[in-house]
Design brief:
This protein is an alpha/beta fold. The protein has two domains: 194 residues, NAD(P)-binding Rossmann-like Domain (Rossmann fold, 3-Layer(aba) Sandwich), CATH 3.40.50.720; 125 residues, Orthogonal Bundle (N-(1-d-carboxylethyl)-l-norvaline Dehydrogenase, domain 2), CATH 1.10.1040.10. The protein has 13 helices and twelve strands. Strand 9 and strand 10 form a beta hairpin. The protein is globular, with a radius of gyration of 20 Å. The termini are far apart.
Length: 334
């Protein structure tokens, strides 16, 4: 291939950026690197150096390596434009910060030239939150049926993988792009289906995560350990309450949904939810995008969710402790 032909072929490849260099962001970067140009935002200088030198890798049930372009900030994404899409793979607790930094850059681009923004996150509302905060309609949501953990600065291990994964919005407006993206992700090893309405998939995973993740965090357990312990009863109550809220909201989750959820949990036995690591590491949890969202919807439709209220208060006590540590001590002068 001539130099000109190689340059043209490279320019025609999809170009993606990833915000978030945790386990999900690194695994996505490694997989996308098979078929696309990839840039990843890494704020930690030491980690950025490691990724630049050694690339990124995913191991376990998914395997790939890549050498993405490493950027020091979201503002630096301007250097990577034009982009096909930007994946937000941060914790949902960072949505406000991401939107504040990403919004000005998107706002300088003509509407037809703006990349899609893809919420590659847990929770019930992150896609809508990004759409609202960015005032941007070209936002899609992915619902992922895999779990990854960091095994080093540049490597993520996938211990849970139950495809298909799903990509779409609240309606079929962006079906053409979602179909293209799903095909590319499938070719990269992440089997993905485009859907016209992502909400049933969002709620299915949201109810499941809201039932298991905080219980695992409070008991410092893997999924399998929770299922084999007395805490299984609490998970059952949380699932039942979440499903009643979804039903009251008019969201059709399909037949035998409770049975299917328990089957998913059984397959996920080796997996340790990320909220466990958040509590262990003294980081804010994602309870706000899981249980608290179910509580908010429950209030609107008049469904009691006492188990979600209790579990949220318990997780909130850990988040309160993190918040309190970050505040300056009263009466201390600098």
């Amino acid at each position: 291939m001539s130099t000109a032909a190689y340059t043209r072929a490279r320019e025609e490849r999809p170009r993606f950026a990833i915000i978030g260099a945790g386990a999900m962001g690194l695994s996505l970067a490694a997989l996308l690197g098979r078929s696309a140009e990839v840039a990843i935002v890494v704020r930690d200088p030491a980690k950025a150096k490691r990724l630049t030198c050694d690339g990124v890798a995913v191991c376990g049930l998914l395997r790939a390596t890549a050498f993405p372009t490493v950027l020091p900030s979201i503002a630096a994404l301007a250097d990577a434009i034009p982009l096909t899409a930007i994946f937000v793979a941060t914790k949902t607790t960072a949505i406000d910060e991401v939107a504040r930094e990403l919004g000005p850059g998107l706002g300088t681009l003509p509407p037809g030239k703006r990349p899609y923004v893809i919420s590659f996150q847990n929770g019930i509302e992150p896609g809508r939150d990004l759409m609202k905060r960015l005032n941007e309609p070209r936002i899609l949501r992915m619902v992922l049926n895999y779990g990854a953990t960091l095994t080093g600065d540049n490597t993520a291990a996938v211990m849970l993988h139950g495809p298909p994964h799903f990509v779409g919005g609240p309606d079929a407006t962006h079906r053409v792009f979602a179909t293209r993206l799903a095909t590319l992700l499938t070719d990269c090893g992440l089997p993905t289906e485009p859907v016209d309405d992502i909400e049933p998939h969002v709620w299915t995973k949201g109810v499941l995560n809201a039932a298991m993740n905080p219980v695992a965090a409070l008991t410092d357990s893997s999924v399998g350990e929770v299922l084999d312990s007395p805490a299984r009863t609490i998970v059952s109550r949380l699932i039942s309450e979440g499903l009643r809220v979804a039903h009251a909201e008019g969201i059709d989750l399909g037949p035998n949904i409770a049975h299917r959820m328990w089957a998913v949990l059984d397959k996920a036995r080796p997996h340790t939810p990320s909220m466990v690591g958040d509590i262990r590491g003294g980081r804010p949890s994602e309870v706000g995008q899981l249980n608290r969202q179910i509580i908010a919807h429950a209030g609107r439709v008049g469904v009691p969710v006492p188990s979600h209220e209790v579990i949220t208060a318990l997780i909130d006590s850990f988040d309160w402790r993190v918040f309190r540590r970050r505040q300056p001590a009263a009466g201390v002068c600098s």
